Amino acid sequence: MPDLFNVRKIYLMDYPVVRTVSVSGVTKPQANEALIDQINQGTLILNFIGHGNDELWTHEQVLYAPTDFHRIQNQRRLPLWVAATCEFAYWDQPDKQSFAERIQNAAERGAIAMVASSRVAFSYDNASFNYQLFDILFNPYVAGGKILRIGDAVMIAKNNTYNDYNSEKYAVLGDPALRLGAPTSRAKIERITPDSLQALRRVRVSGYIEKDAGVWNDFNGKLLLRVVDAKRQRIYETSAGLKVYYVLPGNSVFRGVTEINNGRFNMEFIVPKDISYGGEDGRLSLYFWNDASEGTGHYEKLPVGGTAVNLIDHDGPEIAIKFGQEDFASGDFTKPDPLLNVEISDSLSGVNIAGDIGHQISMVLDDDQAAAKDMTQFFEYHSGSFTSGVLKYQLTGLTQGLHTLQIKAWDNSNNSSMVETVFQVVADSVLTVRNLLNYPNPMTAHTQFSFELSNEARVTLKIFSVAGRLLKKFEPMLATVGFNQISESWDGRDEDGDLLANGVYLYRLEAVRENAKVEKIGKVVIAR
């Protein structure tokens, strides 16, 4: 892949083996989770080399059609899938669809196109075709032109591969005239101060958007900066004593967004303690955009090592857990597949996203510590900030009822904090109102009504006398899951605008959703 692109490598040997009685052989569920998470986050290309068949990648069941097809929810972030394996695109079976066909035909998700074998193929020749394909696909782009059309790249790669019998088994599912979307505009880095990544040092990056060999002076938009540690050398020793040497990209150092004004940008970040302390190939990658244009940039060969003047910070980061709504409180309702929002901040050191073992941002559901999930990759700093940001993640597969969720995070000085919350999952068909109250109560001049909902609904609040006579009706409003307030406070007046006398009054909240309707009644006291 050209250096402009960020590459994530998922090697099975980096993940632990799990043996269960329900599966023959071994599985690697953490590798499977890492792959599906990345697909759902979005990627330009998903490339696989290894053993497979028409419904499965690897004996360890990484990407298995019966259990994983429905979990691929990348919406319209559709990559090109390349599967250098056996039978994945076995498209001419009359009795069933291959996994590749299902992925390609999935509505609003899956793949923009698929390049894969339709029959048994062989590993060495698969790898040869795979290397040819990527060289040919991107050569024009590296030279400043467009990425080659997928069909042309596959045709040339087949012709350049010596084993015609193997390469002719590969097919394109999708539009062969398609070109992958890769921007051609470039961002340039002018200055990195200081010029190396030292632990706990504040680093400033400045640069510009290039046009006609100069600054694009009228470009205004946003820029995403990713800073990565030096590459990591790995050695894997097989059971037979053979050693396999491979290289992984470095850990993340920073990931955040800033504004571009008149073609120029400036950004700061704090380097974590968890760096490699060695290496000359730290990396900065840039992606910028506005409504009309987009582009990329990168800088390689950034030295990594050393420690700045000691930063005195003994407190962990602040953590706030929410589920979509701003006013989430522990014990609130959520939908079956809620969007988790976790705000994390540390005003002195910033948030550690290096992801080193023991220092990840981790999530534990229902006290299952053995199934703790590394959430580091889902955190991103707020625009213009290097001390606070948000982690967003779509939870799936939750059962109805009460759940606990625990988040642990670290700052760049390696201080940790942990927060736990409780939430209640309810089905879309269930409508419940709880915690209906008004404050203050008794009231004098004004009072505010609040309540919690298990699902979105249209609500109406009415106030009655104790004899049941309607005195006041508030405008209906659309309420969301969780905590809500009636949009206007009540001043103790009836529909005619007359002040009501001191005393006890009843109020009724009615919530309606499709075929569901619930009511809740409360009391308010006026005491002027």
What does this structure look like?
The structure is a single chain. The protein is mostly beta strands. It folds into four domains: 12-173, Rossmann fold (3-Layer(aba) Sandwich); 185-307, Immunoglobulin-like (Sandwich), CATH 2.60.40.10; 318-425, Immunoglobulin-like (Sandwich), CATH 2.60.40.1220; 433-526, Immunoglobulin-like (Sandwich), CATH 2.60.40.4070. The chain is 11% helix and 40% strand. The protein contains six helices and 36 strands. Strands 8, 10, 11, 12, 15, 16, 17 and 18 form an eight-stranded mixed beta sheet that branches. Strand 3 and strand 4 (62-64) form a beta hairpin. The chain is globular, with a radius of gyration of 28 Å. It starts with 28 loop residues before the first helix and ends with a strand.
In short:
The chain has 528 residues and is mainly beta.
Indicate the topology:
Layout: H1 29-41, E1 45-49, E2 52-53, E3 56-57, E4 62-64, H2 65-68, E5 80-84, H3 99-105, E6 113-117, H4 123-142, H5 150-160, H6 164-167, E7 170-173, E8 185-193, E9 197-199, E10 202-211, E11 214-215, E12 221-228, E13 232-237, E14 243-248, E15 252-260, E16 264-270, E17 282-289, E18 294-302, E19 304-307, E20 318-322, E21 333-334, E22 339-345, E23 362-365, E24 373-374, E25 379-381, E26 388-394, E27 401-410, E28 416-425, E29 433-439, E30 448-453, E31 457-464, E32 470-473, E33 477-479, E34 482-485, E35 503-513, E36 516-526
Parallel strand pairs: 1-5, 5-6, 8-18, 9-19, 21-28
Antiparallel strand pairs: 2-3, 3-4, 6-7, 8-10, 10-11, 10-16, 12-15, 12-17, 13-14, 17-18, 20-22, 22-26, 23-24, 23-27, 25-26, 27-28, 29-30, 30-34, 31-32, 31-33, 31-35, 35-36
Helix pairs in contact: 4-5
